[in-house]
């Protein structure tokens, strides 16, 4: 069996700050590219902050970038992403910024320049045209929302 990772076109990245670390995978074949903080800060218990990465990317048309939490950061330091997953549309060319939340009730969390704070996963997306209709087709679930499948 081949262990060669699937490849696609390169993902163009631009360094916006001299301390920025370009996103990269920790291991060959990982889905996520690590995003690093370009600024230092202290997150008080329960506080949130928008943290810059100092980079911009050009997500290809027909794709989207998802900014996801790092499980180790969550487990060890209680850091979550407020809007996980964050969505980066293909047309966005600004700095990638990550909205961190310290869920620890007692301890502040120090973020240093260069710390891995999140990960970027680029996925292919469908771009259907929308059309207004008078009725939607039936489904087994119907309009059942939160809790409709049980506990």
From TrEMBL:
Record keyword Magnesium present: yes
InterPro entries: dUTPase (IPR008181), dUTPase-like (IPR029054), dUTPase-like_sf (IPR036157), dUTPase_trimeric (IPR033704)
dUTPase-like domain boundaries: 20-150
UniProt-listed Enzyme Commission number(s): 3.6.1.23
Required cofactor(s): Mg(2+)
Gene Ontology BP term (one): dUTP catabolic process
Pathway as given in its UniProt record: Pyrimidine metabolism; dUMP biosynthesis; dUMP from dCTP (dUTP route): step 2/2
Binding site for substrate: 70-72, 83, 87-89
Reaction(s) catalysed (UniProt annotation): dUTP + H2O = dUMP + diphosphate + H(+)
Domain of life: Bacteria
Keyword tRNA processing: no
Function, as annotated: This enzyme is involved in nucleotide metabolism: it produces dUMP, the immediate precursor of thymidine nucleotides and it decreases the intracellular concentration of dUTP so that uracil cannot be incorporated into DNA.
UniProt record similarity statement: Belongs to the dUTPase family.
Name the UniProt record assigns to this protein: Deoxyuridine 5'-triphosphate nucleotidohydrolase
Species, as recorded: Conexibacter arvalis
The encoding gene: dut
């Amino acid at each position: 069996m081949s262990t060669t990772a699937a490849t696609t076109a390169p993902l163009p990245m631009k360094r916006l700050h001299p301390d920025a670390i370009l996103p990269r995978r920790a291991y060959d074949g990982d889905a996520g590219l690590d995003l690093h903080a370009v600024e230092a800060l202290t997150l008080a218990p329960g506080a949130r902050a928008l943290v810059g990465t100092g980079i911009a990317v050009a997500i290809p048309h027909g794709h989207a970038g998802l900014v996801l939490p790092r499980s180790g950061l969550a487990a060890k330091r209680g850091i979550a992403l407020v809007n996980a997953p964050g969505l980066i549309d293909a047309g966005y060319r600004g700095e990638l910024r990550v909205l961190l939340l310290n869920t620890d009730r007692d301890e502040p969390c120090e973020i240093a320049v260069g710390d891995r704070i999140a990960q970027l996963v680029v996925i292919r997306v469908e771009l259907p045209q929308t059309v207004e209709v008078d009725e939607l087709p039936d489904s087994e679930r119907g309009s059942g929302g939160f809790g409709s499948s049980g506990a």
